[in-house]
Amino acid sequence: MFIKTLEESLEAGRNAVFAQQMSRYTRSLFPFYGIKTPLREAILKQVVQTCGLPVLDDLPALMSIMWDKPEREWHYCALDIFHQHIKKCDESALDLVEKMICQNSWWDTVDYLAPKLAGKLFLRFPEKTVSYTHRWIESDNHWLQRSAIIFQLSYKTKTDFPLLCAYIDLRKGSKEFFIQKAIGWALRQYGRTAPEKVRAFVSVIPLAPLSKREAMKHL
User: Fold this and answer.
1) Which residues contact 144 (CB under 8 A, 6 or more apart)?
2) Domain for residue 70, yes or no?
């Protein structure tokens, strides 16, 4: 009932002009209904009020159904629902996050999955951090690599800076734009908390120009 009601509501909000514009935003990798964020959030809120929030036990199946839908708004709604359950999820949810990072991959979903979902789960289950993120940084999937670099974006003083430095050192020679950008972003974010540490790191590690420029933007 939840899926059926949400589908009817998304279809009712379809806008062909916006859909074309939004698809170009993702380099035409995904079709869109053409529903902008405020309306999409309002639609999902109304569906939850009508049908109730799906229960935690149904989360893996629900994410699978929604992630298999072609329109990108389904994926955004899935992330919103996942986030509403994140404080109640156990460590097995990390496998689900990893799977979602690797499917329908683009920065708009990965940059939500890594810091807002995986990052929060690692704070609750710190013993799982290295085993997952080391596998990610060593993988051939640059979206997993990016996730290993940016999962600590909101950590501030809780940031494991040596771990971040180690992961950056492993991928500093990458030619991939999204990795170079991730390195700069992660360093810039931590620079708000520990600017001298970031300055010192950037001064001795040969980063790509894009990474260095992003890292030092506010320093």
Assistant:
1) 98, 101, 102, 135, 136, 137
2) yes
**CA–CA separation, 118 and 174 (whole Å):** 23
The C-alpha R_g of the chain, in whole angstroms, comes to 19
- Residue 51 in domain: yes
What angle, 0 to 180 degrees and rounded to 10, lies between the N-to-C axes of helices 129-138 and 161-171?
10
DSSP state at residue 29: S
What CATH number is associated with residue 7? 1.25.10.90
**Helix (H/G/I), strand (E/B), else coil: 32:** coil
DSSP string, 34-52: ---HHHHHHHHHHHHHHH-
Averaged pLDDT score across all residues of the chain: 98
Say if pTM beats, i.e. exceeds, 0.85. yes
Residue-number span of the structural domain to which 71 is assigned: 1-88
Q: Give kind and range of the element (H or E) at residue 19.
A: helix 16-25
| pLDDT per residue as tens digits for the range 117-139 | 999 999 999 999 999 999 999 99
Q: How many CA atoms lie within 13 A of 53 on its CB side?
A: 12
Rounded CA-CA distance 194/181 in Å is: 19
